[in-house]
Amino acid sequence: MEHNLAVGLDIGTTKIVAMIGRKNEYDKVEILGIGKSKSLGVHRGVVNNITQTIQSIQQAVQEAEVSADMKIEDVTVGIAGQHIRSLQHSDYITRPNSETVIDEDDIDRLINQVHKLVMLPGEEIIHVLPQEYKVDGQAEIKEPIGMYGGRLEANFHVVVGQVSSIRNIGRCVQSAGLDLEGITLEPLASANAVLSQEEKEAGVALIDIGGGTTDLAIFRDGIIRHTAVIPFGGNVITEDIKEGCSIIEKQAELLKIKFGSAWPGENKDNEIVSIPGLRGREPKEITLKNLSKIIHARVVEIVEQVYVEIKNYGHEEQKKKLIAGIVLTGGGSQLKHLKQLVEYITGMDTRIGYPNEHLAGDSDEDVTSPLYATAVGLVLDGLKRLDRKSIEEKEVEIHENSESEVNEAPVKERRSFLDKLTERVKDFLDNAE
Question: Which one of 28, 142, 326, 339 is at 20 to 30 Å from 333 when CA atoms are compared?
Fold first, then answer.
């Protein structure tokens, strides 16, 4: 595979998407190929049938390879699912020598200490995100490196997940004949694809409504403050339509996409859709008002659960206010009148998020659909990893070539915990029989 290419693999509950992208000369991302397949074997974001998931991954990858006319080797994969939860935690270290300035190693020591937190059986810490630091009791420090102090403490946003679920995803990717280049939290990937830097500074909640789960990521002052995965998505709406109207799933899905609305007041009483009956039975007549009542009830439930999470973060405190409001993305965000309903329930400004923040201007309309927010985000993440790699390689070369006595070690960028997690999953898979 070429050096400047990255592939995102979004293993969702309803669809699996493989997307190939590269940076153009304007530092924007061009999508070269895209493949998608129906996701069999994933339930609420968690793999529950390895064989079927492998087949779906291969199908999506093949389609992407054909459309881009190239071979895919490494992929960046997203993890989500109902097993992901997050918590707030604060920790501190006492430095042996307060005469020296705080450096990377002190921060690494502090972060490693957070990793010793005791979790539930089978859970592991996926992500440790420092929020703000305190040095010797002086609060609200964004970047403590270079300061003097004896006691360094910080508040952390800690994301926790089940390690077996993550390994299963790694296993599927490997068995599909691909290399695991990186692992990323899906709400973070979608956020990178959809949100602007200004929104992240002002305070914004990204709600990614997928088929099996609804992911939430809250940013404020440019830092991620809260993440949550709610185990409902578009599929439960389809399920309700199926039950409520006594029709089969395929018809329920079509009804939802074509005629569904989250706001029952929009439909007149006399608007009716006729659905062909099963084999020789009478067709069914369904009023659109009833359809949107069913959808409305379920959507309200999902939005209210998300709103509880936004309140848990502390949106109602003046200092934590989310000025940019809410951005909706994911396939479920395409439901008619959803934006109005969310604004009505939460009282927050809302927009639909399209993943065109970093894409080249002439990108296909298909690619910029909210459906593909996570996939685009994973491609961006893969490209970022490539950039980091090439910088590190250059630094090593410079270091080797400089014959003169240089005391400066090459600047090592702090590796995110997800990089370490990726390596651990790789090691585990390599050593497992």
Answer: 28
Kindly state the helix (H) or strand (E) to which residue 427 belongs, with its residue range: helix 417-431
Number of domains in the chain: 1
Q: Residue 18 is encoded by which pair of tokens?
A: 């493989």
pLDDT of residue 77: 92
Q: What is the pLDDT of residue 411?
A: 46
Chain segment 174-188, per-residue pLDDT in tens = 999 999 888 888 888
SS3 303: helix
Q: What is the pLDDT of residue 225?
A: 87
What is the CB-side half-sphere exposure of residue 292 using CA atoms within 13 A?
Answer: 22
How far apart are the C-alpha atoms of 289 and 52, rounded to whole Å?
38
Contact (Cβ atoms closer than 8 angstroms) between residue 37 and residue 15: yes
In angstroms, the Cα distances linking 245 to 257, 277, 284, 307 are 15, 12, 9, 29
Spacing of C-alpha 428 from chain mean position: 24
Residue 128 has which token pair? 């440790």
Q: Is 17 helix (H, G, I), strand (E, B) or coil?
A: strand
348 inside domain: no
The length of the chain in residues reads 433
Tokens of 61: 């990858």
Taking 50 as the pLDDT cut, the residues of the chain under it are 405-412
Tokens 């924007």 -> residue: 28
- Which stretches of 36-90 are DSSP H helices? 50-68
Cβ neighbours, 10 Å, residue 4: 13
Beta strands, E only, 198-271? 204-209, 214-220, 223-230
35 belongs to a structural domain: no
Q: Give the chain's count of helices (H) and strands (E).
A: 11, 18
Handedness of CA 313, 314, 318, 322 (dihedral sign): positive
CATH of the domain at 254: 3.30.420.40
- Distance (Å, rounded) from C-alpha 62 to C-alpha 55? 11
Q: How far apart are CA 224 and CA 238, in angstroms?
A: 32
pLDDT digits (tens, 9 = 90+) for 282-319: 888 888 888 899 999 999 999 999 999 999 888 788 88
- Cα 137 from chain centroid (whole Å): 34
Answer whether residue 254 is part of any domain: yes
Q: Comparing C-alpha atoms, which of 60, 55, 49 is closest to residue 375?
A: 60
- 29 CB-near residues (< 8 Å, 6+ apart): 21, 22, 23, 358, 359, 360, 376, 379, 380, 383
Please check whether residue 269 lies inside any domain of the structure: yes
**How many CA within 13 A on the CB side of residue 14?**
20
